[in-house]
Design goal:
The protein is an alpha+beta fold and about 300 residues long. It is about 35% helix and about 20% strand. It has a single domain, classed as Glucose Permease (Domain IIA) (Distorted Sandwich), CATH 2.70.70.
């Protein structure tokens, strides 16, 4: 009988390279798969959907056609890291856009110091990336908490919602809008309603204030929990008019709007003075316009 023996002089090194190559293959498959993601962090479960399931501005319904995969903790962490990399990859485009917004909304030069800071960030990549990642993390965490509250109690009928601010200028960025994702590198799980800075933001429906997050110049938000397993998130607010645990009725003032780059509540991922408005139903983001009156 022929006996063949293979001698591996450095088995540990060989094993390392085999595992590295296998890991690279897995990562390439994962990163190459086009996905549409709920990018919320902190929730116990999230799902991702193959691109092309539903239209650009469709809600994300339960039981959507195609495979829906429950992500493990490791997969969620991979998704967060991938989105962080997308934000960093869009760094210059985001900074240019924020600078353009400042110039358009500050004809009198009152925000010259803020504009100067943005210009300096073009030459300080480390600081720019740090600021962008902080804003992303604040948004991620706020959305994660809102998802958890959206999985809360379910009782009573849910009537039509009110616009949290008057949509006199329409919507500047729609739900899952492609142009937004191309600019910021993130799926847009909200609608942006343009409104003058420090306008009154009102509760879209009766509910309870379950989250008030003040990050100073970062991403500030208020989240309300409503009946029927629905939560609403109001982002980029510059001031608060409610406290956690407070009950509100539809139309009650809850905050003041913000969004102008370099101001309270705006963070570094803003589309200018506006209200960022999200609707979460049973733990999944929905298109807010499906809940609001026509305008």
């Amino acid at each position: 009988m022929l006996k063949i023996e293979i001698e591996i002089s450095r088995p540990c090194v060989t094993l390392f390279w085999v595992m590295a190559i296998a890991g690279a293959v897995v990562w390439s498959v994962w990163s190459g798969a086009p996905v549409r993601a709920d990018v919320q962090g902190g929730a116990s479960e999230r799902v991702f959907y193959p691109m092309g399931a539903g239209g650009e501005n469709d809600a994300i319904p339960d039981g959507m056609g195609g495979d829906i995969h429950t992500q493990s903790e490791t997969e969620r962490e991979i998704m967060r890291l991938r989105l962080e990399q997308e934000v960093l990859r869009h760094r210059e485009e985001i900074l240019e856009y924020q600078l353009t917004l400042l110039e358009e909304n500050d004809p009198d030069g009152k925000l010259a110091d803020i504009r100067s800071e943005f210009v300096q960030l073009f030459h300080d990549q480390v600081k720019a990336e740090k600021n962008l990642l902080i804003s992303f993390q604040q948004l991620w965490e706020a959305q994660g908490r809102a998802i958890a509250f959206g999985k809360g109690f379910s009782s009573g009928a849910q009537g039509e919602f009110l616009w949290p601010v008057d949509p006199i200028y329409g919507i500047s960025a729609g739900f899952l809008e492609t142009a937004y994702e191309k600019r910021f590198g993130l799926p847009h799980l909200a609608i942006d309603i343009p409104i003058e800075q420090e306008s009154i933001v009102r509760a879209a429906h009766d509910g309870i204030v379950v989250d008030v997050t003040d990050n100073g110049l970062g991403f500030n938000s208020v989240t309300l929990q409503h009946s029927s397993g629905i939560a609403t998130l109001y982002g980029h607010v510059s001031a608060f008019r409610v406290q956690e645990g407070q009950k509100v009725r539809a139309g009650d003032p809850i905050a003041l709007s913000g969004g102008s780059p370099g101001t309270l509540g705006a963070g570094w991922l803003s589309t200018g003075p506006h209200l960022h408005f999200e609707v979460i139903e049973h733990g999944q983001h929905r298109d807010p316009t499906a809940f609001l009156p026509s305008f």
